[in-house]
Structures are given as C-alpha cells and as structure tokens.
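Human: Here is a favour to ask of a fellow structure person. Comparing notes only helps if you start from a blank page. Give me a protein, with the fold worked out from its sequence. Please set it down just below, with no commentary around it:

Assistant:
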Amino acid sequence: MSGSKLSNPADARNPPDDPLVMTVHAVPHPGEVLQADAQRTRMGRLKMLAMLLVCASPVMASYFTYYVIRPEARRNHGELIDPQKDMPQVAAKDLQGRDVALTSLKGQWLLVNVASGACEERCQQNLYFQRQLREVLGREKDRLDRVWLVTDQAPVAESLLPALNMAHVFRLDEATVTSWISPAQGHVLQDHLYVIDPMGNFMMRLPAHMDVANASKAKRDLERLLKASSSWDKAGR
C-alpha cells in the first residue's frame, strides 16, 4: 500500500460550499427620497384635517341648522354677528381685585351685560332681564351663565350683590371689551345684552333697551341656540 492518502468518497459527493455572495441593493436617488417625504407630509396633514373636521362637525352642524335651514317663521330676534369675534386672552379682575383669566368663562353659553360699576337704571334693568331670561330656560338654564363686565373702578352697590348671586362679575377695561363686544350703530355698550357661545365667540346682540316684549322674543332665540347645540354642548365646563 502506498503512503498516499485515499480520497474520501464523501468529498466527491459534497463539494466545498461556494464563496459567500453579497447582494448590493440600489441606493435610492435623492429626488425619490424628497418625493416620499413630501407625500408623507401631505398624508399627515390630510389626516390631521380629517380629525379636526370630525371634532368640529357637531359645532358646524348646529350653526348650519340655526343660521341656514331654519324656517322663515323662526327668524331670530337678536342680531347675528358676522364675522364672530373671539374672546380676548387677557386677565380680568373679580370684585375682590384678584386676577381671573377671561377665557375661564369658556365652555358655557354666556349672557353678558356691560356697564359701569355705578350701574344706573339701564344697567339695573339689564341685570333683571338677564336673570329672568336664564330662569325661564328651565332645565336648560345650567348651560347659560350670567356675566357682568364692569368697565371702570366704580364700586358696585351692596344692594346689587344679592341679585348677582351665581353671576360672574369681572372688571375689564372698556377698550378690551370693545375689541370683542360691540353695540349696534348709534348705541353704547350698556344698551344691549350680548350672547357668547361656549367657544368664546361674540355671536349675537340682543335688541337695545330690553323690555318685556323684547325679552319674550329673546327667550325664543336662546331656546333655539341651546337646542341647536344640544348634541355637543352640555352643562358645566
């Protein structure tokens, strides 16, 4: 027998593995990357817009119902404000002199009186009708808050305080008030009561010099507003 090694038959049947082959994928062109990023951005914006529309749709529907498709016989008595004016993001002061964010009033319908702290006859009448209009709403009254914006530093008479129970009384300078709330042409701020929606928008001005006849018609306006918004607005903030 020669000294040479016999080959292993298994070696013939199982040849050595092929060398490792690596596949290099094509690198994307910079233009394609930018295009893909732009497409993702557009999709993100569309999704955000869709979410906003879903959240705002009940509000939009209630306003559409009130403003557009109401029958002629249900025409509003108060004057609708177009465009609406958003509540300023400022600090007011309560009767104790403490700072209060005006935006803390958001989340409820507001019936607003604006006058000097001296509160002469017109102011006192508005406070009376303001309170009566809220009370006649019955079980819906908890969705409406009374607000008196005092435009100066005149002290509020002690005799008025019992009538202001459950009302919000804030001092706010007249310039700030008029940037948000405005009277009808030929009138001054204290001539009207004003309606603010739960989002803080000044949206209706009730007739000047409120009396019993006007109050009855204003009540119907408030009832329709509360009914139109009942799907998205509930009592409490």
